[in-house]
Each structure stands twice: as structure tokens, then as C-alpha cells.
């Protein structure tokens, strides 16, 4: 279990919505902003870990895709940022439930489409993400769930769907970041390659927004 005030951000989604790419890019943006960074691959595919080895990430990437994540997680240290790429919630709820016990901030990564909105908010055969985050309160010392925010990902320019899905999320009482991650080849094709200047694009803007909202502390 955690023993110090390190910050753990849990990146989650029901299925493949660009979460692994976002985790790697976020890690580099935090690193460029001079935060101590440690990433965690809690997805059985270990794509994040593989990417880190191929691209020689300048910070550690650990693996723990198990229901014992909360017990075995070792924080980076005071003022450090730990970010975990959590296995798909609809397929691996035991991993998500464990990570949520110790997360300080939950970010739901989703595309602005009705199909992805339904998988997040009202799935037919799995537990809604909001329910999973809410029930984590019972296993946390504070008895309160971590704050949860939605990051719209793979957003295409000048499409009506982003505004519509953002509106539905807000009506359903989700917090939604103003910053969104656009569809860009530099981001879409990043996995497997070295990352440079991540902090000069939308991921740097995301860090700035998180700081402004008091979700993270300045480095």
C-alpha cells in the first residue's frame, strides 16, 4: 500500500480508446514539465511496457496487471506522478477495482461517439465506469471515491459529435476536461517510437488544465 503523498493517476476505459497511447504521452509531458514520473502497465497486453522498452523511456515503467495492484503498488515518492494504464474495465474489472483503491485521480479516456458513451455510461453487459469508481469508496481509508474526469480522445476537427457527447456527459454529471486529444498522426502512430516535445501539444495543455483545476500540484 502507498506510504507517502505520491500522486497516482488511473487512466481507464471500457475498451481500446487510445488509453495506452495517452498514458505514454502524458508520462512524457509530465517528465518534460520536470515532474518525477513513473508509469504502470496494468493491462495484460503489456503494450505500454513494450513501447517503453522499444523507445527507451526516460522514466521507469513497471507492470502489475492483477487484483493485487493496491497491495503491491510502490509509489515513486514525494511529489512524484505515477500514472497507470488500467486494463479494460469491461474485461478486467478485478484490475480496475484494485487500482481504484489507491488512485488519487481517475481519467476516463473515450472517443466522442454514441457507441463509446454507451460503453462508459450505460453498458449492456458490464458495470458502468462511474459505478466502479463510486464503489471504490468502501475500500479506501477516506471512504470517498477519487475525483473522476473524462478526457475526450481521438477527436476529429469540426464534427458535431464532440459537442453532443460532451453535453450528454455533463448532463449525466461527469466532469469533462476542456482540453481534448485530437486525431493526429504524430499521436496515433506514437506507440513503439521515441517521444519528443509531448508537452508542447494537447498533453501539455492537459497538465496545465489539471493544475488550474487543483487536480495536481505544480512541479
Task: Please outline what is shown here.
The chain has 219 residues and is α/β, with parallel strands linked by helices. The protein has helices at residues 19-32, 47-55, 69-72, 93-100, 114-121, 129-135, 160-171, 185-188, 202-212, and strands at residues 7-12, 37-42, 61-63, 81-86, 105-110, 148-152, 175-176.
Unreliable spans? none
What profile does the largest beta sheet have?
A: 7 strands, parallel
Level of helix content? Answer: 25-40%
Which strand order does the major sheet show? Answer: 3-2-4-1-5-6-7
Q: Structural class given helices, strands, pairing?
A: alpha/beta
**Secondary structure tally: strands:** 7
One letter per element, helices H and strands E, the order comes to EHEHEHEHEHHEHEHH
Using the coordinates above, name the CATH class.
Answer: Alpha Beta
Q: How many domains make up the 3D coordinates?
A: 1
Count of helices? 9
Amino acid at each position: 500500500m502507498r506510504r507517502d503523498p505520491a500522486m497516482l493517476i488511473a487512466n481507464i476505459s471500457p475498451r481500446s480508446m487510445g488509453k495506452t497511447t495517452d498514458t505514454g504521452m502524458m508520462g512524457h509531458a509530465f517528465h518534460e514539465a520536470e515532474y518525477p514520473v513513473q508509469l504502470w502497465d496494468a493491462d495484460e497486453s503489456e503494450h505500454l511496457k513494450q513501447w517503453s522498452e522499444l523507445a527507451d523511456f526516460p522514466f521507469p515503467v513497471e507492470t502489475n496487471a492483477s487484483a493485487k495492484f493496491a497491495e503491491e503498488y510502490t509509489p515513486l515518492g514525494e511529489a512524484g506522478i505515477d500514472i497507470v494504464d488500467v486494463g479494460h474495465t469491461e474485461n478486467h474489472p478485478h484490475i480496475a477495482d484494485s487500482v481504484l483503491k489507491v488512485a488519487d485521480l481517475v481519467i476516463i479516456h473515450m472517443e466522442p461517439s454514441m457507441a463509446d458513451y454507451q460503453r462508459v455510461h450505460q453498458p449492456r453487459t458490464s458495470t458502468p465506469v462511474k459505478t466502479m469508481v463510486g464503489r471504490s469508496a468502501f475500500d479506501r481509508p477516506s471512504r470517498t471515491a477519487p475525483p473522476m474526469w473524462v478526457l475526450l480522445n481521438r477527436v476529429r476537427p469540426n464534427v458535431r459529435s464532440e459537442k453532443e457527447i460532451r453535453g450528454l456527459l455533463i448532463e449525466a454529471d461527469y466532469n469533462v476536461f476542456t482540453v481534448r486529444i485530437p486525431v493526429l498522426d504524430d499521436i496515433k502512430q506514437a506507440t513503439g517510437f521515441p517521444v519528443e516535445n509531448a508537452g508542447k501539444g494537447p498533453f501539455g495543455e492537459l497538465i496545465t488544465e489539471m493544475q488550474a483545476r487543483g487536480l495536481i500540484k505544480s512541479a
